[in-house]
Amino acid sequence: MFLHLGDIVAHAIVEGPPGAEAGGAPVLMLHSIGTSLHLFDPQAAALSKHRRVIRMDLRGHGMSGVTEGPYSMALHARDALALLDSLGVRQAHVVGLSIGGRIAMQMAAMAPDRVASLVLMDTALEFPPPEAWQERIEAVLRHGSGVLADVVMPRWVVDPSTASAKGLRQMLERTDRHGYAGAAAALRDARAAEVEGRIACPTTVVVGDRDIATPVAMAEAVRDAVPGARLVVLREAAHLPTLEKPAEVTAVLEDHLHRLAPPHGAEGGLAIRRAVLGEAHVARAQGNVTPLDAAFQDWITANVWGGVWTRPGLTHHQRSMLVLAITSALGRHEEFELHVRATARTGVTVEEIAEVLLQVGAYAGVPAANSAIRIAKQVLREDGRLS
Questions:
Q1: Is residue 211 a contact partner of residue 127, using CB atoms and an 8 Å limit?
Q2: Whether this model's pTM surpasses 0.90
């Protein structure tokens, strides 16, 4: 898709089940200088099976618009935040590689409430020396981004003969010279003081043990700058490992997200219940608890919400549709109404509700479907989702 983000038209891809953020914020992926959003193809394919994944071509890269430089980390961060705004996303886990990692740090420093967590891959607080970046800028503006290929490829990958490495080279050669130069200026001018002491979200720092562009020592400095951050070192990996070591990188991302997922049991169940049914409903329910139903409320929170809804096998979007089908088929009208209202948070669309109830009519009978349709119409009209 293409979206107007201030002074550029940005190219982005959004994958994964709608409403998946009801069970956790979506993932935003920010690529490195001289590449494109396709740098994360393997990871997006894996994560989007159960989670909403958002990728964008940075300003001046891929199919996003190009403006005259110099760019800054703050400008790139504003672009990413504007993308989230355009998509109606309040908060995201941000995965950034190289300059993408430094942009992710800038986002967390500028707008901490918008960043649920960070995965900072092969990046740094600063990228010295500035004169080297200035030389690159001048060379690229004179000769195009391809002039750097022979210099950067041995830094980007361990084996430049692979198909993925050749693909990375093509990305670089096709990067607009003004886009590369603008981003290089952002790297040249980045300063640790802009982000140090301003990041507090859960963070995983990742680096290849053969990364000579941002080596392990730089990754350790990033880790040390973020309270509680952990460091993962990938073996036999260079600066851009996502295509050369796809399974290993995907495993790190999945582990990072798994550590942040609501735990099984009462604590996780309460979090999921609030995310699906809404804070107001849960507060009302808790306020009405009496000795008669206290044990029952604890049981469903810990075992239904915390034992079933926290499982990774289905998304909350999928579980929401299953609940609609089962409650309508069984004539559990009060519960059906509650979960129709919840679809505003689980991302189940009016069209999907219609398909679910058509299926109910086919397999559970027309009377069951008719009753459910009547209730769904009333709820959706009250919520302004059906005219």
A1: no
A2: no
